[in-house]
Amino acid sequence: MSTVLVTGGSGFIAGHVIIQLLEQGHTVRSTIRSLSKEPAVRLVLDDSGMVRGDALSFVETELMADAGWPDAAEGAEYVIHLASPIHTGKVKDENDVIAPARDGALRVLRAARDAGVRRVVLTSAFHAVGFGHGHLDHVFTEDDWSPLNGPGVDAYGRSKILAERAAWDFVGQPGTTLELTTILPVAVMGPVMGADVSGANHIVQNSLNGQMPGYPNMFVPIVDVRDVAAAHVAAMTSPAAAGQRFLVGTGEPAIAMKEVGAILRAELGAAASKTPTRTIPNVVVRLAARFNDEFKPVAADLGYVKRVSNEKLRTVLGVTPRPAREAIVAAGRSMVERGLV
């Protein structure tokens, strides 16, 4: 088994990746922004079923600083780079999101190259593939790239596009033997870890808490975090994965947000009593988008059902993802069990 560096070890996807790597017998080194957080991160992982915790260690690094990265990469055969800022909607300075994503990825790649790492698996996002195109009659594949300034592309989306393109440019330099694979998940839901709720799981939490007056006429492609983690782990060692992008989705059409609420009400009973049932008219969402940039990505995709191929995920990586319904229910139940709603 190999030594694997996992960046951003306190994150949602990273936690599931770490657990799966340890289950498979790997030694894991993970980066966190402060070693003072290590006990809390270990507690969350233990509570989530971590085995072989003695094979997990931590190193302190920052995406915007060089310190610590050479030590973090030293002796690692593989790197799974998950650390990246998550900030959707309007930001005061887009560079606060873009620079850590792009420059952080390059910092990790340089450290990996210099340490003789075999392969880096970098987490991108569906934002780098399926946003900003308008309402195409199209099944999105790994050959697609989102335009930087297309409708509905926000600072977070641009950070993912620019970071991934920079990474491919880096390994494309003459003489570079470092292998790169990128993972591009759609909206990630599934069992939470600890008290933090991140990513698309906020849709579930806000629904259960009754914090949404209704659902926009929006359709979301959803995938379970456990399958996203499995894709990262499989991409790490699969010979055919080198130099490839992989979309990670269920293969189902995007699901209506109102259907997310219906699934929660059907499966969680009284715990979902506050979940809304109404749909917000399109005209209201479009009007809100004129005054609030956070609504612009929603308004851009009203009524649009995105279709996402998962052929390479299944045939190359051998990952058969759970249905979206299972991810939604697992997210909701874990939040109820942990008192997060």
List the helices and strands and how they pair.
Layout lengths: L2 E5 L4 H12 L3 E6 L5 H10 L8 E5 L8 H5 L4 E4 L13 H20 L4 E5 L15 E2 L14 H17 L7 E7 L1 E3 L11 H8 L6 E2 L2 E2 L1 E3 H13 L7 E4 L6 E2 H12 L10 E2 L1 H10 L4 H5 L6 E2 L2 H5 L8 H14 L4
Parallel strand pairs: 1-2, 1-4, 2-3, 4-5, 5-7, 6-15, 7-12, 8-11, 9-14
Antiparallel strand pairs: 10-13
Helix pairs in contact: 1-7, 4-5, 6-8, 6-12, 8-12
Description:
This protein is α/β, with parallel strands linked by helices. It has one domain (3-333): Rossmann fold (3-Layer(aba) Sandwich). It has helices spanning 12-23, 38-47, 69-73, 95-114, 155-171, 201-208, 225-237, 257-268, 282-291, 296-300, 311-315, 324-337; strands at 3-7, 27-32, 56-60, 78-81, 119-123, 139-140, 179-185, 187-189, 215-216, 219-220, 222-224, 245-248, 255-256, 279-280, 307-308. The protein has a 7-stranded parallel sheet, sandwiched between helices. Helix 1 links the parallel strand 1 and strand 2.
> Class, according to the CATH hierarchy?
Alpha Beta
Low-confidence segments, ≥5 residues, pLDDT <50?
none
Identify the CATH homologous superfamily. NAD(P)-binding Rossmann-like Domain
Mean pLDDT: 95
Summarize the amount of helix as a percent range.
Answer: 25-40%
Form type: globular
Strand order of the largest sheet: 3-2-1-4-5-7-12
- Amino- and carboxy-terminal Cα gap: 40 Å
Structural class category: alpha/beta
One letter per element, helices H and strands E, the order comes to: EHEHEHEHEEHEEHEEEHEEHEHHEHH
**So, CATH architecture?**
3-Layer(aba) Sandwich
Q: Count the E strands.
A: 15
- Oligomerization category of the chains in this entry: single chain
Task: Please give the count of helices.
Answer: 12
Radius of gyration: 19 Å
The CATH topology: Rossmann fold
Biggest sheet overview: 7 strands, parallel
Which percent band covers the strand fraction? 15-25%
> What's the number of domains?
1
Keywords: Oxidoreductase
Protein name: Nucleoside-diphosphate-sugar epimerase
Organism: Antiquaquibacter oligotrophicus
Family: Belongs to the NAD(P)-dependent epimerase/dehydratase family. Dihydroflavonol-4-reductase subfamily.
